[in-house]
């Protein structure tokens, strides 16, 4: 459904707030610490809801993610570049997150409304883009990070991917599922309001 600039901005702000609240661990937002990081789901949903706004929305979300990481790490009195999670592999988050954005964007382009066909397309787009993101983020960390002890091997990498596969998939699917429910509800409410407006004329 076409969106106005105001609607796009509102969606962007909502997604940015959710990412900040869930990605910013050990921060002033203590009551959100139990929530899993929504970042992967946010990039997929942003690609879907903000398709066509990628030139500004994706870079801003990416900058937010990096800024949050910097604030959290430096807030613990640690040097950002010497942190366990930060290495040359950190740069791979750019294509990793972009793959999720593209998955959502392609779904938005080819979806056919609230039909069973769209549900199937959503599942394929989500799983494919999530797999690319997971492969890039996990693989780059394993092969490029000094935090991973030597020697490295394909067998050990496969075991590492298997260990984290389900937790990452479940968390991302949870947020994308919540987004899907909100999308269906918003679409139905919009249709009902439009129908009421037409019938009152």
TrEMBL record:
It comes from Rhodanobacter ginsenosidimutans. The keyword Transmembrane applies. This is Cobalamin ABC transporter. The chain crosses the membrane at residues 57-77, 89-107, 119-144, 164-185. It comes from the Bacteria. Keywords: Membrane, Transmembrane, Transmembrane helix.
């Amino acid at each position: 459904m076409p969106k106005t600039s105001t609607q796009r901005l509102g969606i962007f702000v909502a997604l940015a707030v959710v990412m900040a609240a869930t990605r910013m661990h050990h921060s002033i937002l203590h009551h959100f610490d139990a929530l899993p990081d929504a970042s992967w789901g946010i990039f997929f949903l942003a690609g879907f809801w903000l398709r066509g706004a990628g030139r500004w929305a994706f870079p801003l979300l990416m900058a937010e993610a990096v800024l949050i990481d910097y604030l959290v790490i430096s807030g613990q009195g640690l040097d950002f570049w010497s942190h366990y999670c930060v290495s040359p592999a950190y740069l791979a988050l750019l294509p990793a997150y972009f793959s999720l954005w593209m998955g959502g964007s392609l779904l938005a382009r080819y979806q056919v409304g609230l039909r069973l066909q769209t549900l199937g397309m959503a599942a394929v787009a989500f799983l494919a883009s999530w797999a690319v993101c997971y492969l890039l983020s996990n693989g780059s960390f394993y092969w490029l990070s000094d935090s991973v002890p030597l020697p490295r091997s394909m067998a050990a990498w496969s075991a590492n991917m298997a260990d984290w596969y389900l937790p990452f998939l479940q968390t991302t699917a949870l947020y994308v599922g919540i987004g899907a429910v909100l999308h269906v509800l918003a679409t139905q409410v919009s249709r009902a309001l439009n129908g009421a407006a037409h019938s009152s004329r």
